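Cross-check.
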Amino acid sequence: MSPVTRDPGVDGGAGPRVVAIGGGHGLAATLRAVRTYTDRVTAIVSVADDGGSSGRLRELLHIIPPGDLRKCLIALAEPGSPLATAFDYRFDQEELAGHALGNLVLAGLMDASGDPVSALDEACRLLGVRGRVLPSSTEPVVLKADAACGEVTGQVAVNGTDHILRVSLVPADPPAPEAAVAALVEADQIVLGPGSLFTSVLAAVAVPQILEAVNTSSAQRVYLCNLRPQDTETAGYDVARHVSALLAHGVEVDRVVCDSSGIAVGATPVPVVDVPLAKANGLAHDPARLAQTLADLLG
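Predicted model, tokenized:
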């Protein structure tokens, strides 16, 4: 893979326009890979989180949860940035116990500005982020699942549920940032995942404007599958069942990327790229291998 030529042109960078969608550690792993073959990357992050520090700040300040946004900012920040390292520092004293510094900074920026997009743009500037981090919706949403056990409400609860049939949001049609929709329309490549299928990936594309933009974009749409089934959410799933869940939610993809050393593939209706992607410990995607695979798909 050839290195990207750094040329801050009128659009702010060099390389293909890549949009990555999801949440949590999975999306951060994709961003660490993508930033090595392009400067023009946009993260679109689920805002359904209702647990931990994010849930507490969301409830207290009535803002979108900052935790997954923080992870993505750190992933796109200049490597070795002291501020990015500090953003991940988690307090353990009294009222601050459990809060990451970055969550508090983002909460303050959002609360002061009243606009999560401008708050995130300012955080990008502070951290020297290469690209942009945007929420899937500018308002907090509640994730709801229809499962074999009945209706389950809240991301934390859904994450602990098996035999999920469908997820949706409350409200059903929350506003998506115009910048997120524009990034999808103009993208050369859209990468969904990895990460929790229902509570991260599908929670992000459950925003109707985001789903429509993904499906109508002329970009190459890639689903990056988890390295293994996730207890309890996708226990027993193979790659084909992941794809079936995407299709059941109206998400269309052109390619599926997976590593069958930890998950069976099955019969999928879209082409599968099956390559070694795991780190030596087998627990996470190797950024260099992932970058090579995604860049090669663009030709």
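The two ends are 10 Å apart (CA to CA). Confidence is low (pLDDT under 50) at residues 1-11. Passed to J.P. for a second look.
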